[in-house]
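Worked example 3 (structure in, sequence out).
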């Protein structure tokens, strides 16, 4: 291990007047705490009287942290002009040398020779900053002999160059002479001959006489270039932890690496990635021979990066002998320097391929090629070059480049994984959302879905339009808690459940109750997953174009907005039930009769809620945008998104607009049927006459049979009141209602059964049939398509 030498100056009174960096490193005490104090205060034990007359020996000191430090010390008297002792210069080493006899003249001569030949430059100046003593290291550093420097003023341009570094040293020498206080001065610069950067640390201390007066200034210089650049490398690495990977974007991450290292570590940097990294493909094995890389980022100290051979966004093929392919194949960083065959061939190939940038590559002398590897997978390669900076890369630089590359590679891989998961979740969500809404006449609809671009990923927003019996339509929007593939999958399950429950024709409040139970069961199936992680909000509404009645219920979802014809947009007051999965609280339905041509806006909370936006202001902007007169629904959708959303939404947004229609009196016919079998024929004839009035004589045969069967069943098995209704919409609909809540079911009649074939006949003659519960009983319905006009 390299030994640390220390130098201490003690005046005739036993006071410490000078304290070197080596002394601080050996004892832990800094100069500010020691200079001006008695030297005896540093001793761990009292010295024997005989030791006070010796000039060499072993001394036990107290380290700053309390432990004992034994040092081999040698003292050299400092004599004044009259030959009297003014103090001592004491040097020390941590490992005691072999015990020597009492100091002799030969010992003193050896000590002086050791100081003169020390590798640490040491010198002394009088109070006018003239050299009074210097060792050989100073002569070598200054490039002059001792005779030429003694007595010379330090600020003389014949001695030192006229620059800020020399000026700073001179100012500090004067300060120590004036104040009698030790100082440390650090300088950084470039060598005038080869341009390499250096760093020096100078300790300056006052030298005092027996009376304590400052008579001269001692100075010792330490070349701290290695330590300085080590600190700079560490600082760069620490900065990389914060500067690289600020976004989950592959290209931006590569650009952040380039911005960090130019010009602090390299004059030119390029980052090339394998093609699959930029897509959503699975990781692929790196080819053993030719490798195709995609240039995603580069930069240099020269504006425009003229050194680059490969343009940004372009692909390039690298042969097996090139440094990038070798580095990726070997999985380690490679260093190249001018004069090496591989490096010179690489430079020549670059110049021949792109001669325009050749002048900017002149002087390139050092290169480090680092494979970008994360989680055991090679993603690409980064190349660092030094051109104008004279100092070549060292092994320490290679280690730093590997650390920087490793940090960048992990961030690139994170961005790649995020992009892949986002693409998968988006594809899953698009596959689950309705692609083309089914045809129906109750409402005209338009919709928008915007996935968020935040790091949280795709959410679980959804919407749907579901045709129901009796020309009614269900409108639904929902939002699953969380983001990512799990949320998209949960959204798909809930949307499917809503469609299934809607097919049963449940009222909105009952449908949400069943959906709430489903979310609770899903949480139980997820091995005790928190319901909050699987929860969702939902708004379910049913619109009847015959009665123009809107019935809706909410499970923790924002209320819809309504714009009546010629009116102003407002929010519909809805009894806000709890979010799905909370349980224990009922859902309540709200009814509202709508004028024909009313505009409904259903949306998810991402449209109006954000941590940086006021929800009331966003809601006002929504209502204002909905008031756009005479515009198509698609235009209104775009206007709403433009007016309400920020440039970068923080959550998914689903927006569903519906303009209501109403079925006129001429499209609906209703008859009350007494509970008497004799009135079956009357009902059948009434239906036939209505079909004739509608010009649907060709449908009369099938409709007569359906009316006969449904009315007969209602009279035989149902309860009054009984009602027959025909609806002419896109299909011809027959509805028979009665006061019984017992639902019919289709069964197969045996050969000798007298009944049981009615519903089977209805199912075979019509396109669809079913039943739904009402507030007063049930309704059996059947649909028959109308011939296209």
């Amino acid at each position: 291990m390299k030994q640390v030498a220390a130098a201490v100056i003690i005046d005739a009174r036993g006071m410490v007047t000078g304290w070197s960096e080596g002394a601080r490193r050996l004892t832990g005490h800094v100069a500010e705490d020691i200079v001006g104090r008695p030297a005896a205060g540093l001793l761990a034990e009292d010295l024997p009287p005989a030791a006070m007359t010796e000039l060499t020996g072993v001394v036990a000191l107290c380290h700053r942290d309390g432990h004992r430090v034994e040092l081999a010390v040698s003292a050299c008297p400092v004599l004044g002009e009259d030959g009297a002792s003014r103090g001592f210069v004491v040097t020390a080493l941590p490992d005691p040398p072999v015990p020597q006899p009492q100091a002799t003249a030969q010992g003193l001569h050896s000590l002086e020779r050791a100081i003169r030949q020390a590798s640490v430059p040491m010198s002394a100046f009088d109070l006018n900053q003239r050299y009074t003593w210097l060792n050989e290291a100073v002569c070598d550093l200054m490039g002059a002999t001792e005779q030429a420097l003694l007595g010379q003023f330090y600020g003389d341009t014949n001695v030192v160059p006229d620059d800020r570094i020399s000026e700073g040293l001179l100012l500090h020498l004067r300060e120590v002479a004036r104040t009698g206080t030790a100082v440390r001065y650090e300088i950084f610069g470039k060598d005038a001959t080869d341009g390499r950067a250096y760093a020096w640390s100078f300790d300056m201390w006052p030298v005092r006489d027996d009376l304590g007066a400052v008579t001269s200034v001692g100075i010792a210089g330490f070349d701290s270039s290695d330590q300085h650049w080590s600190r700079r490398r560490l600082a760069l690495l620490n900065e990389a932890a914060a500067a690289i990977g600020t976004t989950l974007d592959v290209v931006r991450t590569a650009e952040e690496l380039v911005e960090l290292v130019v010009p602090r570590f390299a004059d030119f940097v390029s980052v090339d990635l394998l093609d699959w990294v930029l897509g959503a493909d699975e990781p692929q094995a790196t080819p053993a021979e030719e490798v195709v890389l995609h240039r995603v980022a580069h930069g240099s100290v020269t504006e425009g990066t003229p050194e680059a051979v490969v343009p940004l966004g372009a692909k390039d093929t690298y042969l097996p002998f090139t440094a990038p392919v070798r580095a990726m194949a070997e999985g380690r960083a490679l260093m190249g320097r001018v004069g090496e065959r591989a490096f010179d061939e690489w430079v020549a190939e670059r110049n021949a391929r792109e001669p325009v940038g050749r002048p900017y590559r002149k002087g390139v002398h050092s290169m480090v090629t680092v494979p970008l590897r994360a989680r055991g997978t090679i993603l690409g390669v980064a190349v660092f070059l030094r051109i104008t900076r004279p100092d070549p890369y060292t092994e320490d630089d290679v280690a730093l480049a590997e650390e920087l590359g490793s940090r960048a590679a992990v961030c690139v891989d994170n961005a790649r994984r995020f992009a892949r998961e986002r693409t998968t979740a988006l594809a899953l969500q698009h596959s689950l959302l309705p692609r083309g809404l089914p045809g129906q006449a109750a409402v005209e609809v338009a919709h928008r879905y915007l996935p968020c671009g935040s790091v949280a990923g795709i959410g679980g927003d959804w919407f749907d339009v579901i045709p129901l019996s009796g020309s009614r339509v269900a409108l639904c929007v929902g939002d699953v808690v969380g983001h990512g593939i799990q949320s998209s999958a949960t959204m798909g399950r809930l949307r499917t459940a809503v469609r299934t429950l809607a097919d049963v024709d449940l009222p909105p409040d009952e449908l949400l109750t069943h959906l709430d139970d489903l979310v609770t069961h899903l949480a139980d199936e997820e091995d005790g997953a928190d319901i909050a992680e699987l929860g969702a909000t939902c708004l379910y509404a049913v619109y009847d174009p015959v009665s123009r009645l809107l019935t809706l219920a909410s499970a923790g979802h924002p209320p819809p907005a309504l714009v009546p014809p010629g009116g102003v947009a407002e929010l519909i007051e809805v009894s806000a039930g709890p979010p799905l999965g909370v349980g224990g609280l009922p859902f309540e339905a709200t009814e509202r009769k709508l004028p024909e041509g009313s505009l409904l806006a259903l949306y998810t909370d991402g449209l109006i809620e954000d941590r940086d936006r006021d929800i009331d202001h966003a809601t006002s902007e929504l209502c204002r945008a909905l008031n756009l007169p005479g515009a198509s629904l698609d235009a209104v959708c775009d206007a709403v998104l433009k007016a309400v959303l920020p440039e970068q939404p923080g959550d998914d947004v689903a927006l569903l607009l519906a303009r209501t229609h109403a079925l006129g009196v001429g499209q609906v016919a209703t008859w009350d049927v007494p509970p008497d079998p004799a009135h079956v024929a009357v009902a059948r004839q009434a239906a036939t006459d209505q079909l004739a009035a509608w010009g649907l004589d060709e449908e009369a045969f099938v409709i007569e049979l359906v009316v006969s069967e449904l009315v007969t069943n209602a009279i035989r098995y149902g309860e009054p009141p009984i009602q027959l209704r025909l609806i002419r919409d896109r299909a011809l609909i027959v509805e028979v209602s009665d006061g019984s809540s017992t639902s019919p079911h289709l069964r197969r009649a045996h050969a000798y059964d007298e009944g049981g074939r009615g519903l089977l006949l209805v199912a075979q003659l019509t396109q669809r049939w079913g039943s739904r519960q009402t507030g007063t009983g049930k309704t059996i319905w059947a649909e028959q398509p109308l011939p296209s006009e």
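Notes: The first strand starts at residue 6 and ends at 11. The CA atoms of residues 458 and 484 lie 5 Å apart.
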